[in-house]
Amino acid sequence: MTWTQRSHDLLAELGGFLLGASCAGCDLPGVLLCAGCRSSLVPALVDGRTPSGLDVRAALSFEGVAARCIRRLKGDGETLLARPLGDALAAVLVPAIDAARGAGEVLVVPVPTTRSAFRRRGYRVPDLLIRRAGARTAQLLRIVRSREDQRGLGVVERAQNVHGAMRARRSGAGERVVLVDDVVTTGATLDEATRALSAAGYRVISAVALAATPSRRGLTGHSSSTHRRHGGNDP
Ligand SMILES: [Zn+2]
């Protein structure tokens, strides 16, 4: 082992000790995200459709390293992960904005989070990811009715649970919208967001998500093959 390697290892170890850091994907100490896990965040696009027929494209499948990184961001406040995850989101968000662009500008609208989640985290996950993906957010939606936890619910129950939960903050005049969520399961939340925005005069063109759950209860896939391509900054 050369001195350079040794000092590098020592620095990594010290850094890990000082920061208490470990890889979000595999718990390797001393790094936020190791090279191997970083390569697992290269987008592998998942296409699907919500129960109401809105096209959704997700950058990643919500499993393995990607799922662990997203949980670390959402649950443990590891906001530095928003950078690599935002890079992954950019791979689906940027083309969606381009495709939705008509005569005017495209509004990028995050799915709203509850006030209690915002208080707990101090940030809104979809908004943070959009900013890290290099786009501007239009916070057009708010939650007007609390809902039950969606976990464990099927497609129909999720749709019923979320119906009427959102409202637009102001009315629109046909502006085009791309919706963004962090993790999409059945798409019921995206359908409710679309309902609220359409009722206020906006036109939702498509939706993108950072990740889609691979569950069989989930989105209706219309292109079962996921195509892998490079995105973000890393090989
Ligand atoms: Zn790792």
From TrEMBL:
Residues 225-235 have a biased composition (Basic residues). One of its GO terms (molecular function) is orotate phosphoribosyltransferase activity. Its EC number is 2.4.2.10. Keywords: Glycosyltransferase, Transferase. Residues 215-235 are annotated as: Disordered. It comes from the Bacteria. The keyword Nuclease does not apply. InterPro entries: ComF/GntX_DNA_util-trans, PRTase-like, PRTase_dom. Residues 120-217 form the Phosphoribosyltransferase domain. The keyword Transferase applies. Pfam families: Pribosyltran. Belongs to the ComF/GntX family. This is Orotate phosphoribosyltransferase. It comes from Microbacterium oxydans. The gene is pyrE_2.
